[in-house]
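[step 3/7] inverse_fold.run input=structure_tokens len=388
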């Protein structure tokens, strides 16, 4: 049996009250972009859900379901058969879908009815369709809790949608509805997960990566591009600012106290990221920091780093332990790339005993030995922008 549409349900968007239409329109836009290379006729809003109209002359391809599973804002979606809102037609379509389903012994029919003038209630439709299936398929039983097969019916005024599969979506909010952020993307495990979590909250994420080429190998940059490519599946288009950082590091090593190097590195990074955020019209920075995970991530050091900028810094992993972050990285397919050995710019010129409780006055004093704005301007001028 050929499916005619894909019925898309959302959850959180439904709570947005008078602003719901804005979120729905953004979700429709993102779905159209995700399915631009697929065989569909169109995407439209319909009664608290979104409908993708398929090309019925072609088989439903896995590419469509794969793309939809990575669109944030979708709680679930289902390939459906759309029929005229007529009871006999609904009943026969439900029976055909049940017959086409494999490996089931028990079933349940669940009906939603937004068309209140339809002559039967939801419960009556479920009861009668269930009886029709029982009468026409031998040796099957109705089971209310955890049946093998769910036959779902959604009745609207013009069409009724009948389906058996419910595929999980990305959840969250549509990317783009919560503005832009700039994420400091390293080649490690944490920052890709932090970036993904902001995408899930509806933010468009612009990446900034700091490298120390030619002191570090090109493979380190390639790895970051690969991570960004994986993450771009969740927001369709991605931009990376590749910032050369070696000259800044050399100046810090030459002029400043060794134990403050890492904190000073981070202060320059967030300053440059803030400047890029202004260029991109982004509202906040994102990092993968977690309290106490490394020396630069104590509360005192985080305060010293924040002191360098005025833009908000979002740290979605701040209370997660490493195992929790690893599990998330595996779920979003960044883990295997993140654990590939690479040269990290922050691992260059690291002192034997970095400060763990940076004094902000001392930090400012050390930084005062440098021409801060000149170093930032030079780094931004040499920055390469890559679009994926």
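[step 3/7] decode complete -> sequence:
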């Amino acid at each position: 049996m050929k499916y005619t549409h894909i019925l898309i349900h959302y959850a959180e968007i439904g709570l947005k009250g008078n602003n719901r239409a804005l979120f729905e329109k953004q979700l429709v836009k993102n779905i159209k972009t995700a399915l631009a290379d697929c065989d569909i006729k169109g995407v439209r809003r319909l009664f608290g859900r979104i409908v993708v109209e398929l090309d019925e002359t072609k088989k439903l391809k896995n590419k469509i379901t794969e793309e939809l599973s990575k669109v944030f804002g979708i709680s679930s979606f289902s390939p459906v058969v759309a029929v005229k809102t007529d009871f006999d037609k609904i009943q026969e379509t439900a029976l055909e879908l049940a017959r086409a389903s494999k490996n089931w012994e028990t079933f349940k029919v669940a009906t939603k009815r937004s068309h209140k003038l339809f002559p039967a209630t939801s419960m009556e439709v479920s009861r009668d369709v269930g009886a029709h299936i029982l009468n026409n398929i031998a040796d099957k039983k109705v089971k209310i809790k955890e049946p093998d097969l769910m036959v779902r019916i959604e009745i609207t005024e013009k069409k009724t949608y009948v389906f058996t599969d419910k595929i999980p979506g990305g959840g969250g909010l549509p990317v783009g509805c919560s503005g832009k952020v700039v994420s400091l993307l390293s080649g490690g495990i944490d920052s890709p997960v932090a970036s993904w979590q902001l995408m899930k909250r509806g933010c468009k994420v612009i990446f900034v990566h700091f490298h120390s080429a030619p002191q570090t190998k090109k493979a380190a940059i390639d790895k970051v591009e690969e991570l960004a490519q994986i993450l771009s599946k969740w927001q369709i288009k991605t931009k990376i600012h590749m910032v050369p950082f070696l000259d800044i590091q050399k100046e810090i090593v030459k002029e400043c106290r060794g134990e403050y190097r890492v904190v000073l590195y981070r202060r320059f990074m967030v300053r440059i990221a803030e400047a890029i955020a202004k260029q991109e019209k982004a509202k906040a920075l994102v990092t993968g920091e977690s309290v106490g995970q490394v020396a630069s991530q104590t509360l005192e050091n985080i305060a010293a780093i924040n002191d360098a900028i005025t833009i908000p810094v979002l740290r979605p992993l701040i209370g997660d332990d490493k195992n929790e972050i690893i599990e998330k990285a595996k779920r979003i397919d960044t883990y295997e790339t993140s654990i590939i050995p690479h040269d990290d710019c922050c691992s260059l010129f690291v002192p034997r005993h970095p400060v763990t409780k940076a004094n902000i006055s001392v930090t400012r004093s050390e930084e005062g030995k440098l021409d801060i704005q000149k170093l930032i301007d030079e780094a931004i001028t040499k920055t390469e922008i890559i679009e994926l």
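[step 4/7] annotate
The first strand starts at residue 5 and ends at 9.
The longest helix spans residues 261-280.
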